[in-house]
Amino acid sequence: MKYVHLPLNEEMRSIGGYYKIFEEGVLDYEGRKVLYLVKGAHVETSCCGSGGMAYMNVPGYLTTWKSEKNDGGLDVSEVKRIRDSATQKKIRKVLSEKYPYIPVIDFD
Amino acid sequence: MSEGIRDKVVILGMGCTRFGERWDDSPEDLAVEAFIECLEDAKIEKKELQASWLGSHIDEINIGKGGNFLGTTLKLPLIPVTRVENFCASGTEAFRGACYGVASGAYDIALAFGIEKLKDTGYGGLPDSPAFGQMQAAIGPNATAPGMFAQLATGYSARYDIPMDRVKEAMAHVSWKSHQNGVKNPRAHLRKPIPIEQIMGAPMIAYPLGLFDCCGVSDGAACAIVTTPEIAKKIKPNEDLVKVKALQISVSSGEEALYTDWDGAGMLTTRKASSMAYEEAGIKNPRKEISMMEVHDCFSITELATMEDLHISEPGKGPDDVLDGFFDLDGQIPCQPDGGLKCFGHPIAASGLRMIYEMYSQLLGRWPEDRAVKDPKFGLTHNLGGVPNQNVCSIAILGRD
Amino acid sequence: MVGIRSYGGYVPRYRLNKMIVFGGMGWINPANIMNAQGEKAVANFDEDSVTMATTAAIDCVTGFGREEIGGVYFASTTSSYKERLCANLVAGALAADESIRTADFAGGLKAGTTALIAALDAVGAGSANNIVVSAADCRLGKMGSVQELMFGDGAGSMMVGDKDVIAEFKGSFSTGHDFVDHFRGSEAKYDRQWEERWIRDIGFGQFVPEAINGLCEKCGVAPTDFAKIIYPCYYGGARKKINKTLGFEPDKVQDNMQAIIGDCGTAQPLMMLAKALDEAKPGDKLLVVSYGSGCDALYFEVTDNITKLAPRRSITGSLAKRADLDNYIKYLVWRRMVPADTGLRGEEQKWTRWTLQWRTRKVILGMEASRCTKCGTQQFPPQRICVNPECGAIDEMERVIVSDKGGKVFSFTSDMLAASANPPAMYGAVDINGGGRYVFDFTDCAIDDLAVGKSVDFSFRIKYYDAMRDITNYFWKAVPVAEEAE
Question: CB distance from B212 to chain A under 8 Å?
């Protein structure tokens, strides 16, 4: 799977609100590198109400690091999705200790 | 035996405001803006209007109840104004009233209006209200629209055994394609091209719907003046005319909400209303005959499921068509050529008429080449209100002679 | 020459006889019989410091174009907001230009004269001109208190400029000191006061002469040079002592109207000054002193221009228009001192849409209408499509202020069902002079005062109060014009 590295601290706007990527990090886990992103979202103009969230998502294990660029000039890495739920649970525990204030950790 | 509406009504003129956060404009300003364009397009004088239908959904702010807002603001000459409301399908409902008024022979020329001024609410989102009645307010779940429509996505994925990854990919393409179209549209609220990776990286609002799968609150108004083909030909003898080919509405029967046989993968109402609309319009193979569509993309999953509910994509094959670009602007059946709700936001009662405005304008070849659908014959609008298990679906098909 | 160019004043119509108050609360404080002579002016349920200041300011600019106003200063210790600049509300109601200075003066009872000095300094320095200063207070005393009987409601306004000045500003002297004879904390509803004898003897008795002497020394005049000496002090005994100490002749000391209005706080010196100007002659030297957290003393000399100034209501005119408030409890409910049941309906949400308030501020505050340039029809609120059925022109309007035009009653009713803090609710359609018709609330009248064809003036009032969110918002009501003034 390709992962496109989006710019940090930029508002990504939709008609309902926006999100930002605050941090892009790599976690060493059992000899492999896990790519994770710390993000925040503010839903401010959606029909469905207001709100937002602080969350992280994990695209997967990095198999290459910024090995190419896409048409828009952004760096692209290759990632392997982490599907195994036991592994997800363990990685979640490590990340939530590192980031105690981020309540949601999603795996792509 | 009823004959349906096919070819009995012509759209003489239309108007549509710029949609957006119109802080400096009152509902009166929005109404006048749409009306001026519409009257000019229709080439008639205000005094020739004989009846009007006014769609508005939100009572708590906006324009109040009843039809008086339209009469007083536009200074209509003491003609009927009937306020109609049918959730997000209120705009098409107003259009329907005006069309039936003309088709019945009761009126020669009628006005259909949809307007919503939502940005005086003071906070993000729509004002709270017991939209489904007191009992649901007392015992129903504390749900949001994305939460209810998200269940359509999980239902769809389960029904057709399509991995959620692929469903999400298709939903992302749906949003991406609409944003590409919206960039070109001066009336749209949001006119930014959004890279697909930005859509994929967005937060989950209600799994599996992400930020870019949801629509937003906007102010806007749109209107149409309709008349008989005979009168239209007298007023515009040398111009192409857009005729109403079908108008169908279907409202949920309670099956989806309370019975156990609904598959949760699409809207029964859309399936029924579209079948009836094709029959009314004389369309036998919608996938081949429909030239373009504006559908209710309040959530990307709605658009995805709707492609199948409209009998255009085969059941379970919606994601394939979407990812093949079948519904892109340069695809077989451009869907949301104006950018859709994703780019316009959703001033509730204005949306249905905005969809009709886009189909009407495309049929008359009014747009520059970069956003024009090539040689369209039939345009379909799909205007959906409510939630997947309790909804109203309104379909309009317009065509050029 | 810098000074007062114009002036105005306002005393609310209702007067509450102090014996009625004593009748209600004398059992708890019988000594209050000493303070129960006369009556106090009481703001109607739809009035507050902002509305009264506005009314006085409008009176002040009688005869002047609103576009001339170069600043608006609002002074009060009883503003309806801790934060929402009320000078902007007064300026909006005056339909003044928006590119002018606006400021609120508060914090102590001398704020009215402080605002006046600030205006005089600004005009003197050439940094602004035609600044309208308006002070108003609606002070509260607890039930059974001395303050309740002492305080009154009212407003006074001066326009400061350098052209056609009616009272030249000759100089001022100010003191500021943390003498806390009374105070009100940031969360409190009522003042707290120290021993009266201390306030009389050390407060008024010391600081008023200090200010007067300081001014006289600074300006090289004697206290007895003044035709009128104006200072607030509701202690009769203290007044006698101050007058004697400074050698004032009794008829040169401006009546503080304690028995007919009460003490109006920050507005008091300006109201007394307005009353003095109502009767002043060219050449009169006027001394205006304020008291409260320090003193300001100002010296004015009346010029010939006072004879050319257009007549205005001012304090004299306000005093002539009165009605008895014969119900003490009504006063308590109006001032939110006692809770009254407004029923479940009364608890319904009163939403304020700030986007709408902003977008239509000139209509709501300034009572701006539109006039069709094609057919001349004036219409309120402003329309984009002309309401004249023979015209219907779109976007051919010019804006026109109608707050000062008045109108005539077209229809009216007295409604016992409609929620009102002063029932019955009276409202009806008013034909605005010059054109346009709108349904207004009537106020400051009895049902007998209303008749089809009766002339009305428009008055800036509280439109509603949202108790849940502590929001007061304003609009215009119609007040029948008294017979004798027609």
Answer: yes
